[in-house]
Amino acid sequence: MARMVGLVLAVLLACTAMASANFNQEFDITWGDGRGKILENGQLLTLTLDRTSGSGFQSKHEYLYGKIDMQLKLVTGNSAGTVTAYYLSSQGPTHDEIDFEFLGNVTGEPYTLHTNVFTQGQGQREMQFRLWYDPTKEFHTYSILWNPKHIIFMVDDMPIRDFRNLEGKGISFPKNQPMRLYSSLWNADDWATQGGRVKTDWSHAPFSASYRNFRADACVLAGGGRTRCGVAVGTDAAPGSGVAAAAAAGSGTWYNQELDLTRQQRMRWVQSKYMIYNYCTDPKRFPQGLPAECSM
Ligand SMILES: *[C@@H]1O[C@H](CO)[C@@H](O)[C@H](O)[C@H]1NC(C)=O
Predict the structure, then answer these.
(1) What residues contact 197, with CB distance under 8 A and at least 6 apart?
(2) Residue numbers in the chain where pLDDT is lower than 70
(3) What is the rounded distance in angstroms from the CA atom of residue 70 to the CA atom of residue 20?
(4) Fold of 12-223+236-295
């Protein structure tokens, strides 16, 4: 691990701000045999699921910190049994991962928004929410802000969860494994809806979810272990080294961003009204005691 830290700290950082990016340039459809499609000159991406297969895509780039925004419109009607996942993840047994998952439901019943954070291969940090709107009617923006101090989950810019860096207290935090963005639409009717009791109704297939307005204001892993953040894609302008470069990058306000008091209050309000599960209030899952961050 120490070697990895050294390697990452040694990389050059230059930053890349992208306006709403072109899906053709940013993503590869990785599975689903034609069920995932990039349309409208790269402005729209759709995934579909039928009885034979789901589909998925992943980012061409790997990110080491960033503010990632994506607009999603979820499977309409009877979406029970379907899961739309949208997450950042590194590779390997000690991987880090930051998850949004949308668990479908029968017509008229609410989706569950499931979130989780894995550090060093260790997850079990689920928090689940109801949404305050119907996520199948319009596009809504789902964002991950990942910087050295926080992982903040946002829905239409409303913070719903803040996983803080508490390394000083001995709790690991994702900070040196670059992550790709992945998304998929798949059948999980063995567990997803009402604990697996409600099965996918294939007479409604194919199911479809849509994506648009992807934006990554992020540090991107470039060739030779270098990283580029902010500025423009493909330039080597304003390179610097390590953390200082990212902090200095003009677009890098996300890099130091924290929730101010107002936003912390809003988050607490959303959690009090819309959170339906919190691992920190589920001691029976943790016979050895709740995870340490739960008491901080
Ligand atoms: C589906 O609706 C039921 C009933 O309102 C609810 O209990 C459940 O949490 C909802 N979501 C999922 C994913 O089952």
Answers:
(1) none
(2) 1-19, 230-252
(3) 9
(4) Jelly Rolls (2.60.120)
83-138 per-position pLDDT tens digit: 999 999 999 999 999 999 999 999 999 999 999 999 999 999 999 999 999 999 99
**Three-class DSSP category at 249:** coil
Residue recorded with tokens 């499977």 = 75
CA of 66 to the centre of ligand 1 (A): 32
The residue ranges of every structural domain in the chain are: 12-223+236-295
CA distance 193 to 107: 12
Q: Is 109 a catalytic residue?
A: no
Active site annotation includes 101: yes
Query: How many angstroms separate the CA atoms of 217 and 174, rounded?
Result: 18
Task: Enumerate residues lining ligand 1, CB below 6 A.
Answer: 103, 105, 109-110, 112, 192-194
Beta strand pairing status for 82-89 and 180-187?
A: antiparallel
CA distances from 87 to 130, 169, 225, 281 (A): 18, 26, 23, 24
Q: What is the pTM of this model?
A: 0.88
- Nearest atom within ligand 1 for CA of residue 111: 11
What integer pLDDT is reported at residue 222 of this predicted model?
84
Q: What is the mean pLDDT of the chain?
A: 88
